[in-house]
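Let's practice the habit of predicting before peeking. Look at the sequence and jot down your guess about where helices and strands might fall. Then scroll down.
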Amino acid sequence: MKIKQKFKIVAGPCLAESEKMVLLTAEKLAIISAALDIDFYFKASYRKANRTSIASFEGVGDELALSWIARAGKEFCLRTLTDVHSAEEARLASQYVDVLQIPAFLARQTELLTAASATQKIVNIKKGQFMAPGDMKKAAAKVTSTGNNNVWLTERGTFFGYHDLTVDFRSIALMKKFGFPVIYDATHSVQQPSIGEQSGGRKEFIEILARAAVAVGADGIFFETHPNPLIAKSDAATQLPLKSAGSFIRKMLDLHNFLNE
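Done guessing? Here is the structure:
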């Protein structure tokens, strides 16, 4: 008999901007997740390697930011996730977190995928904005080729002309056929990439599209949240206010439970 998996929630700030902000966000999300029957992971990037402008803030230093993420996980009993951009970073970050995430623009990079896999951590591969759902089976195979079958696949929108994304919800159903958990990235999917000096976004569609993703069978939701998105140093246009995180998670979980009774 197949064991029913809990609904996954991956949430946290886009970037580890400061230790205080990371811990504040983690504490709030820990309280929310402890009250719910979910499979929760705290997310924060230690560095943003792909920025719109050379003037954009990238991070405070890799090991310092990773130490903040690790501390948040330890203090609040949370499993943690972060992005990696190279084989060397995969080996470094694996010492601090539980899940290594492959950014969408790097989803075809064989050396990165196999290096992340070799750490024996869970590897979350974000589907490139330029990739078809079927391409993700090949990306996942690069991870499993090393003997690590702990793979997640994440839908985060597809290029729709210049400076915009659209979501083809068929991709969730198609990727689920590959046998791995499929996550929907609710905040990056509403981005308007490189629309100015930094990416913009249509925040009003976050919940609407997330509901659709759950309805078609997503195994979890990824979203970024910040205590004050207006002053966030990255993805300010699409991060949910931290005060709204609990309500958003509960709505997604209630819909998932209703559809899977």
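How did you do? The first helix runs from residue 19 to 34.
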